[in-house]
Design a protein that fits this description.
By secondary structure, the chain is an alpha+beta fold. 27% of the residues lie in helices and 40% in strands. It is built from 4 helices and 8 strands.
């Protein structure tokens, strides 16, 4: 996949190695470990090597990221993070729209994620619906959400 430009000069691309992966991990460190106090050993769970990573940049600076893992027809979107000074600018929506577009072209029937409960309206706006009860992950309330892509 090549860079996909969005509003205001943002681009999103799949990254696999080198500086770009380091940029994605640095965003996750800032958002989850520093801001939300997620323990480092929970954030860096050993699953990054087998995942697809997306990196959103603005003017060459990494500002958002997401990771996707697929198995048995289900794609799981994880570790969606946008740096604080770029939240509410449409970065998360643009990032997610690119991820969802890619996944709709793959052999997946369901897209799943665990939303922090405060963000579930954001994901509802992208077509996800909550399933099950609220639960805690790393001390933060979450809700599982799914989006059916095809039967």
């Amino acid at each position: 996949m090549t860079d996909r430009d969005g509003p205001s000069g943002r681009s999103v691309r799949v990254v696999t190695a080198g500086r770009d992966i380091d940029d994605a991990l640095a965003i996750r460190r800032q958002v989850f470990i520093v801001e939300q106090h997620v323990p480092e050993e929970l954030e860096y769970d050993g699953l990054d090597a087998g995942a697809t990573h997306y990196l959103c940049s603005l003017d060459g600076r990494a500002i958002g990221t997401a990771r996707v893992r697929c198995a048995d027809g289900t794609a799981k979107i994880e570790r969606v993070a946008v740096l604080a000074d770029h939240r509410r600018d449409g970065v998360g929506r643009h990032l997610m729209e690119v991820v969802l577009s890619d996944l709709r072209h793959q052999e997946v029937t369901t897209i799943a994620l665990a939303s922090q409960t405060y963000a579930q309206d954001f994901y509802r706006g992208l077509g996800f619906v909550p399933v099950g009860d609220e639960f805690e992950d790393a001390g933060i309330p979450h809700i599982s959400m799914v989006l059916r892509v095809r039967d």
